[in-house]
Write a structure and sequence with these properties.
two-stranded antiparallel sheet, 263 residues, D-Maltodextrin-Binding Protein, domain 2, alpha/beta, 10 helices, single chain
Length: 263
């Protein structure tokens, strides 16, 4: 182990990391591109994946990059729609990091890694919405959500607003509607809402709190993927040494863990 540590410190290249793993009998897992982990992200989601495919940034990007490095692989990103992750057919990635909640219904179509992050849904309101927000008040507002998400499920199945419920295919679309007061409140992943507010504080009102139960995010792989054991092992290693917590703090801030529950 000391020899490996010196090698890692002395040489930062991923290729040498892979060679070190092979020397210790841990062959690099087979991927779509030899020596490279191809990861799907969905650009346009605050805090998780933003920028361009050539220069992406956010939690999903940092998490996937740390994972690939821990596995002794290079990293390659593809932009892939969240809504198509569970559609049958060939996929252009080895794993997807798109803040996907691990749910029994989804496990029928894909394999998940062990959880790498736990959060809830949150509520970001428009600038004109002032004062305390309760569930009773939220129910009367014009609520919007992103399609095919647990936020959308929460609004329809639990909140059941009395006003027309608006759904958008992307988070960017919903945020634009919120900034223009087309909708009064956006229900979406709390970390993403905190990041959106921090990036453009003047465009929105407050992140008024969290709703729903705890959700556990996992990386998505095809059913029976031979990569799952290696991915799980790397995620557990990143969790134990505090890497994941540092990545979350960097991209979402401290409010991620302390937002009040809306009642």
């Amino acid at each position: 182990m000391r020899t490996a540590s010196k090698l890692i410190v002395a040489v930062a290249s991923v290729g040498v990391l892979a060679a070190a793993a092979l020397a210790h009998g841990n062959a690099a897992p087979r991927t779509k591109v030899k020596g490279t982990l191809t990861v799907a992200i969905e650009l346009g989601n605050p805090g998780f994946a933003e920028g361009t495919l050539a220069h992406p940034h956010g939690f999903s990007v940092d998490m996937a990059s740390a994972l690939a490095k821990r596995m002794g692989l290079q990293i390659r990103f593809v932009d892939y729609p969240f809504a198509r992750l569970f559609v049958p057919g060939p996929k252009p990635y080895d794993a997807a990091f798109e803040f996907v909640t691990i749910l029994p219904g989804r496990e029928r179509f894909v394999d998940f890694s062990i959880p790498y992050l736990t959060s809830t849904q949150g509520v970001l309101v428009a600038k004109e919405i002032k004062g305390p927000i309760t569930l009773a008040r939220l129910r009367k507002l014009q609520v919007c959500a992103k399609e095919v998400t647990t936020g959308s499920d929460y609004v329809q199945e639990v909140l059941q607003p009395t006003a027309l419920f608006l759904q958008y295919p992307t988070a960017a679309g919903a945020l634009t509607a919120l900034s223009q007061s087309i909708c009064d409140a956006f229900v979406f992943d709390l970390p993403a809402l905190l990041a959106a507010k921090a990036e453009a504080p003047g465009k929105y009102g407050a992140v008024v709190g969290r709703v729903g139960s705890a959700e556990h995010y996992g990386a998505v792989m095809r059913t029976g993927s031979p990569l799952k054991p290696a991915v799980d092992k790397a995620i557990e290693s990143l969790r134990k040494d505090g890497t994941i917590a540092k990545i979350a703090d960097k991209n979402f801030g401290a409010g991620f863990a302390s937002s009040p529950l809306i009642r």
